[in-house]
């Protein structure tokens, strides 16, 4: 089975590219000149005062009928567009480089801050543990002092009872 060939906008040629004519007319860019009736003195353009002929002369003066000039303009416009796109690409690449540099700088700062926070948390845990130990020791001393105070009170009471 064979696939049917497409019909439509693709007009593929079987000849190699090197043999395909390169003129604008071959690509459908040929510019038609003024209609022959407008160029004749007694033609249909003559009744309107030759306005059509003047239009064609203005077209020719501006360069709209010159195929080579139009192709040069197209190439220049294309070259300008390519240049603009290249400069835009370079700008994007420059900004991307700046963003990457900033990203690495921020990542380094983040790592430093993370390490600093970890050290601070570890120091805080140590200080909390030391505080708990100090509080426990203070409570032990307080208990020992209470016991000593109670013993002293009992000793005085016992001494006072024995001396009277």
Topology:
Layout: H1 36-39, H2 51-62, H3 67-163
InterPro entries: CRWN
Subcellular location: Nucleus lamina
Keywords: Coiled coil, Nucleus
Elements, N to C (H/E)? HHH
Number of helices: 3
Mean pLDDT: 79
Radius of gyration, in angstroms, nearest whole number:
50 Å
Report the β-strand fraction as a percent range.
Answer: under 5%
Structure in a nutshell:
Residues 110-155 form a coiled coil. The protein contains 3 helices and no strands.
Task: Please describe what this structure looks like.
- This protein is an all-alpha fold and 164 residues long.
- It has a domain of 31 residues.
- It is found in: Nucleus lamina.
- Belongs to the CRWN family.
- Keywords: Coiled coil, Nucleus.
- One of its GO terms (biological process) is nucleus organization.
Which short descriptors sum up this protein?
164 residues; mainly alpha; 69% helix; rod-shaped
């Amino acid at each position: 089975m064979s696939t049917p060939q497409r019909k439509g906008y693709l007009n593929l040629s079987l000849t190699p590219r090197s043999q395909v004519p390169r003129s604008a007319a071959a690509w459908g860019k040929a510019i038609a000149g003024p209609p022959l009736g407008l160029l004749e003195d007694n033609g249909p353009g003559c009744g309107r005062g030759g306005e059509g002929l003047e239009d064609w002369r203005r077209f020719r003066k501006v360069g709209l009928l010159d195929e080579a000039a139009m192709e040069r303009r197209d190439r220049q416009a294309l070259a300008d567009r390519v240049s603009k796109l290249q400069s835009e690409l370079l700008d994007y690449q420059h900004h991307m480089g700046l963003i990457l540099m900033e990203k690495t700088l921020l990542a380094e700062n983040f790592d430093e801050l993370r390490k600093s926070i970890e050290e601070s948390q570890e120091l805080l845990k140590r200080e909390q543990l030391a505080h708990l130990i100090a509080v426990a020791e203070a409570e032990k001393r307080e208990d020992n002092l209470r016991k000593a105070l109670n013993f002293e009170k009992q000793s005085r009471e016992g001494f006072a009872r024995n001396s009277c």
